[in-house]
Structure formats: C-alpha cells, structure tokens
Amino acid sequence: MSNKTKNGHGVQEEIHNKNPAEKSWLAYILIHYRWVFVCFFLLPLSLVYDIYHLARSWVIFKLNSAPKKHDERVKFVQQQVREWNQQGRSTPMCTARPGWQTISFRQPKYKKTLFNVKVNLIDVLEIDTEKKTVRVEPLVSMGQLSATLNPLGWTIPILPEMDDLTVGGLIMGTGIETSSHKHGLFQHICVSYELVMADGSAVKCSKEENSDLYYAIPWSYGTLGFLTAVEIEIIPALQFVRLEYQSVSSLDEACRVFQEQTLKDENNQFVEGLMFSLNRGVIMTANMVNSAEPGKLNVISRWYKPWFFKHVESFWGQEPHVEYIPTRDYFHRHSRSIFWEIQDIIPFGNHPVFRYLFGWMVPPKVSLLKLTQGETVKELYENNHFIQDMLVPMTTLKDALLCFEKEVKIYPVWLCPFKLPMAPGMLRSPSGKQEMYVDIGTYGVPKVNNFHPVETTRRVESFVRSVNGFQMLYADSYMTEAEFHSMFDHTLYNQMRKKYDCDKAFPRVYGKVSRAARD
Which UniProt keywords apply (predicted)? Predict the structure, then answer.
C-alpha cells in the first residue's frame, strides 16, 4: 500500500486519480458483482474449512492428545524467543499468525518488519467440572468452544456470538455478549493466563499469583508476552433460551426500556437491543430454560431460516412476543449473517430461494473475504464503510445514539450492556466504582452525505472520550497517541512493561492498533 494511505487520504487521492469512466465501471463491478465470486468460490471453500477444523478439534479432544502436545508447543515458543534474545533483540516480536486470519477488517503492517514467533496453539486442553473451569489454548474459537462444551451441558458465562472469534483475541482485545451486564467483559470470566515472556520464561498469573500481570494482560494486544493458555469459568448450560421481543417506537422509549431491562430486572440473563432507525427498535431479554412451550420452538440455525436481524425486525410494531431457541443457536445467532454485513456482500442472501438452495454454506469466512478482497475492494471499503464498537456509560446512551445518527446513520445498531467492575488495568471507570456501560456496534455503509473515514471517525472518537468511553481495539482508530492514552489507563501497563523488560521485545499497544499500523 502506498505511503499516501498512511494519513487516511491516500485511498481517496488514488481513486480520484483514475478517470471517471474507469472509476465508475470498476466500482460498479466490484460492488454489484462480488457476490459471484463469494457464492461460487468462497462459500464452498469456507464450508470445507469449517468441516475440517471442527472434525479435527473433535478427534483431538476425544483422543485427549492436546494436553500432551501443549507442553511441546509452549517449549517451541520459548525456543523462538530465546533465539531472538541470542540474536541481539534488534527487532521487536509479534506472533507469526497471518493478518488475514483475524476477524478484524484490517491487516497489520507491522508483521512484515517484526520478528515473527510461531504460536500455533488451537486446542481445548481440559474441562474440570469440579472447579467449573475449562483450560484452552489462545486460538480456540467460540464456535469450537461451544461445540465442545454444550453437548456436555456446560458453557462459558460470556460467549461472544461470532464463531471465529478466538479466546486470545477476546482477551488481548476484548469480548462482550448479552450476558455481560451480569458478568462483565470476557476478561472478567478468565481465572488465569499462561504466557511466555520476553526472556523466554513461562509465567502463570491469576488474582492470587502475579496479580499485577493478570490485570495488565487484557487490552494489552500481545505487547506484554505471548499467551499460551487460559483458564475460563464455565456454568451449566440449559437446553433452550426463552427469548422475548419488545418493540420500541421512539428514542426515549428505547433508552428507557433498555435501561430498565438491564438495571432493574435482575432475572434477565441476556439483554440485547437492535435499533433499525433512531426511533424504531426491538429490545430482547432472554433466560436459559430446560423446556420449550409447544409450538414456540424456533431452530434459527437451520439453513433456510431468515437472517436473525431480519427475524428480529419482523417484531417491530407488534405486541411483545416470546419464542424458544436452542441454546447454542442463540449463542451464535448473528454468525450466519455476520451481524448484518452479509447483506452488503450477498444482497439477495435473505431471499427464501437463496436460503433454501445455498443457505447451508453461509456465511463465508471473514478471513477468506479479507484474503481475497484485493486492493481495489479494500480502497472502496476504506471510503464507504464504517465498522466500530464504542463502549459508553449507560447514562449517555441517548446522546451516543444521536451522535451515531448524525455522523454515520448506519442501521441496524447493536446495543449490548455490560458492567465495568472496579479493577486495575487499561479500563478504569472514572467514577471510582462499578458502572454499567453499553456497547454500541455500527457496521455497514454510512447513509450521510458528508462521511469521511478519517474526520468522521475522529469526531466519534472525540465524543466517546468526552463521555469517558472506550473504543474497541479491532476497529480503525485515528486517535493521536496522546488521545489514546487519555482514553485508556496505561499506569499498570507501563509498570509491567518495565518489570518484564518489554520495551525492546514488543511494540506498545498504540503501535499495533492505530490506523497507521494497519493496511
């Protein structure tokens, strides 16, 4: 990618350098006919990819071979780090995992210049039902984990819905789900972490052991050490989820109902909102149950079923509605439609004919979409796409929704509440006590006339900082380093960088997540 792209304006200049006829023709083909490549190549390839990895995980778990190989793999990571030390520590380290394999829209540029360490740790290691924990390697995905735990009657308290999200990514970045108002963020259900540090040593940390490192790891983006294993809480999983849909017809009503269901009704295990316009939305509450009322079971994972967000929209303007969904289906309800991003990739994908004929192959792998998108598609996305999750205090929800309406006007908007406990680390509540926040997720094509990827994002980031909110690190960040430091508390992080001699070993977080560090 050219140097122009680094300042956020290069893509626009490059597109403007094409003659109008070329721009128009190329853009039309890529936007309107990309589905041909996706449907006839990426969907079959994604299906084969998923079948292979699920089968492999099942066999390895049944043979109980993962724990035996885990120690060997960790020693291999240690060996590479020690070799880096012996070579003079001239270039910082990062994992060798290709950028296209992550679920983030961007690919990191820093992997091309840093010392790459192979960390191929992808298995479920142990389920301890007495301690109520599961021990996993960092590249275990949410789809893989739920497929392992649910048949045994267990789940993790927070299970982010996208199948391909990994444990390591959800810790080093962050993870959230509709149960987060009860349990916090993904980091808050983690009992312990195991890492290989800059000197090649293996360290374990928890609230009781190396607690300062334990609290510094979340949101550190792999800049304190290489994560090799995680111990996570598990809870019993019942067979179904009873899901209730409540229509709201104004912004004030949406904020009121969402806050009431989150803060006042302690019986709700899951709370979620989808806004389909500023004054039109559906608030959902749910609980796990062991039986379903006759005639009210909806197996939403079946290939011919409508995309979940479209199903939810059908309840707007209706009386409150109750249905029952298999628990694992509920956990991954947004996976088939990649929330609602798939409608921009396969515009007719929710048509009944397409669903019946090809729905069993959906969705395409996000990683394969990234790998095959090419520079021109990437440039078009750069100027016409906005993907952000902003975490703001619940008390500022109305103002935040008005901000997103003004700046991007993308719908649906995802609302997910979470509690932010008082604990050391990058995320600190300015109130000095536990506080309720909400994740506002916007993914899609802006419908405003004045959208610009840099200026628009910076205005949204400025609003989020002004209300003491946070930006998820997977998304484009155009903050300066000073602005980034004002959003995230680096006190403990800096102490750990010094204690474990990380300055020459790893980049800083900002150096990995700022827009300048990503293609």
Answer: Membrane, Oxidoreductase, Peroxisome, Transmembrane, Transmembrane helix
